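Structure ticket #2291
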Amino acid sequence: MGSALQLIVGGSALVFGVLFALVSLLLQVFVPYSEYSRYLKWLTLVLFAYVATVFAVRVPWGEALQHTFIPSFTWGNESIGAIAAVLGTTISPFLFFWQAATEVEDVKRHQTEKPLKKAPHQAGDQFRRIRLDTLIGMAASNLVAFFIILTAAVTLHAHGKTNIGSAAEAAEALRPVAGQFAFVLFSLGIIGTGLLALPVLAGSAAYAVGEAFRWPIGLQQKPWQAKRFYAVIAAAMILSVGIVFAGLDPIKALVLSAAINGVVSVPILVLLMFMSGNRRIMGEFMISRPVTILGWVTTGFMGAVALALFASFIW
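Resolution: structure written out below.
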């Protein structure tokens, strides 16, 4: 199994990357959303391979927990850029479009459900479901992110491997440091993450573009019913694969795109806060005062990080 994963994550990564993109594209185009969404939900379980990886290596837990809650920080482009990138992966612009669009898809799929402004009596059950889904999703994603950082810190970084050029290189560098089992688990996480991220990122782009131009959209639609919507998905897939073949450093590209997401999210959050706090728009579903305060604090913090990032390039 290890040799097979080495083939996938190693020299043939580009070929398998194209294959994964093609499979994801075919699933999005030809599998109805009601079935496709179930595949994505089960696929998220592979992310816990990153959690299992930590228990395959030696972790100085005392030191790890200390630096988790009391991190060291130095002013500079890299440190501030890393903070912006972390924020950009947690509160990403594509999430706003993807989550909203999938909620609309669910409403269309269930004949008994209606938009809440037309059926406010359904709000209680729907809000409880959304709140639970969000809490579980954010807890799981942050847990996985923590263990990815922890694995890299106690293996690669601890042994001076701080310049990794690709996910395949990261997995391969992990083998001599942490052993074959850790390599296999980390490789499974990389493959599963790729299969999960491709359709979500491409789909969210299609929803954003389609809504902006008022095209027929939706993964529940047949390809001939939403041609331009699916064309955007295909273009996003092709572009992502093309970037890999262009010879760019994928790790640096990921960090840069995450930092850009952290900056771009700020004006989107500002608009969302104004809209969600406007009774004329939201009616009885206007957000509460505690949520308003928390939202503006989050927006302000992300705005401060974005300004600090710009300032770090000037001074």
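Closing remark: The two ends are 50 Å apart (CA to CA).
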